[in-house]
Write a structure and sequence with these properties.
Helix content: 40-55%
Largest sheet: 4 strands, mixed
Radius of gyration: 13 Å
Distance between the termini: 11 Å
Strand content: 5-15%
Length: 92
Amino acid sequence: MIVRISGEDQYELADEDAAKLNELDNAVVSIVDSGQEDGFADAYSALLEFVRAHGQRIADDDLKGSDCILPPADITFSEAGAEFTGEGLIPD
């Protein structure tokens, strides 16, 4: 799975990381759906850190299509409301 973090890099994650990635995405969606900002920054940071830690960074000159594009690290809670809805950003 290829995941892009907007404004940063693309990462290739192993198939076995998909379940954990989806779990972290669902945690962010749950917080956004609750309308309560508490915990959002920590949950979104955990999602991004998982991608950075478990993914292999793709070279800038290696053009690959992304399976998923995550918003930038500095996304606000109100901006996240438009991005993290329903099933989330990570495809099942």
